[in-house]
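User: Structure tokens for this complex, please. No commentary.
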Amino acid sequence: MARKHMVSNPKMVLFTVMSVALAVAVIVLMMGLMEGYRGEIIKSTVENNPHIIISSKENEDYISLYRTLSSTVWDYPDVQAVSPRLLGKAGAKYKDEVRGVSFVGADPAQEDPLMHVQEDVVEGDYLDLVFKKHSAILGTKLAEELEVKPGDDFYLIRMNRSLKLEVVGLIQTGTGSDESLVYLPLEAAQDLMDQGDVVSQVGVRLGDIYAAPSITDDLNARTSYDVKSWQDQSRDTLELLDTQKAIMYIFYFLVFVIAGFGVANAMIMIVSRRTKEIGILMAMGTTGRSIVQIFLTESVIQAPPAALLGCLMAYIVARLIEAYPIEMPSDIYMVSRMTVTLTQEVFVYAVGFAILVNLAAGVYPAYKASRLDPVAAIATE
Amino acid sequence: MKHRIDEAGVWNNNHIIEIVNLFKVYRGGVDVKALDNINLVIEEGEFLAIVGPSGSGKSTLLNMIGLLDTPTSGKILLKGIDITQISADERARLRNRELGFVFQYHHLLPEFTALENVMMPMLIAGVKKEEARATALQFLEDVGLGDRINSRPNQLSGGQNQRVAVARALANHPSVVIGDELTGNLDTKTSDLIYDLLRKLNKKINQTFILVTHDTELAEKTDRILRIVDGKLVCEMRREGDRFVSTEVCQTAEAE
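Assistant:
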């Protein structure tokens, strides 16, 4: 078999390789962005929420035996933090400004290992809350809106109770909660709620986040509390992402179809430019099948360099995105910047798709070539 | 007009090509009869020239014999196989194994060297590379191009390319070699060299040669001359010793 493929016009090859390479690059990047976004969501879920949340029993609003519960949880292996917390909504008032807030009342010594609060505190010190019962840490945006500064006193108002608190620090988590978050000592929160020595939930942090479901199941079986793992909490988001994936696949397909037309176009050009040579090969007894083979090979042979080039481009752009982060509105996307996670899988898919595209795009031109009339083909100049 | 028509269905072993009532009509606004009822028997080992004015149908006939074109009606038997009835693959196989074609222009593949061009039909036939290379080298040597084997067509003169094309046509030791003006681009010396080579092969392995030519000198060196005018075989001459004898009444007076 004349396996030596006909060397094509280098310029033409360059363009078709580029078109496929661009398609590969776009798709690798999109996949990387999706994967990165997914990863970020999981990360932010895991970072910004307890890995396991134990809420009150079905007919109760609060957990009162939280100290016993905490020690039970501590018995599980790989538990890094357990923090009883009292969560609620209240109004914050400073001078004439009033804002709705979500407060978290907890013991800083237990809450910090759970939520790594201190890492996000941009002014002041979270642990100051240990020493001052009537103090609070505010989200940066909330503080801006209230026009309150550290050192100022503001009021938390709930029902007919109000509490005077001193702002001792500001926290910036990078999420939407910066507009409404208030950290205060557990006792202060209990005062505000007026329900006695209770909490609304117990948060748990684990060394291995993927151990959460089994511990959750076990706790649900052993106690009558309502226990949820982080996977349960972010289920909706992850499912949404999966739905989005299907739409993305249609998009990938279209990108490849467009690139495929480019390749097919170039291949048709090559066939028409090579008409005479095809005629000669036929006169020498090359079968139609071999002609098809030659042109398919010619088409497919462009896939690996195209895939390689595309992956390289995607990689470079990914590095640029990492180096120059693009800010995103965190209240819509739940994460504050674009990240690209390029897994090996993505590259394998891209290479596979590129080969498929070239193969599919080569079929029609190759078939046309094999059906040429040798006499007419040889007569073309 | 009386032609040599054999009894139908019986294939004479010596008849390498039999053409029976062959027509080729190009349809269009006006139908053009490129070949008009051609009947012809060519025996194995014949060295034959087809002459005639331009547009007479010589090349069309040659393309038919070379399996490149299909007739409108009639039969062509190559070694007893009716090539108008067989599959495209089988036609391709016959073109590759049984036929060697030298075109009016060399029609070499421009991206390949002389050696690779000559090897090509053998590679298509599935001959091993080393073997094909050795055979190709020998043929290039024979046509006097042993020192230009790695040149590409654009590095060779028209005559040299034509010789490469001859070597390529011979490469697979085909039973029939078809040449369309194969010495048209060659000087007398090279033309003689090619003729001698073809004649040697003709004698040695009884290869059949069918040459369309305008070159009277070359035509007169062959054993049989067929004259085609307006798609019809009008005159046939056979060599007897040193001179040609017309077996038919040649209808046209004009000399070639």
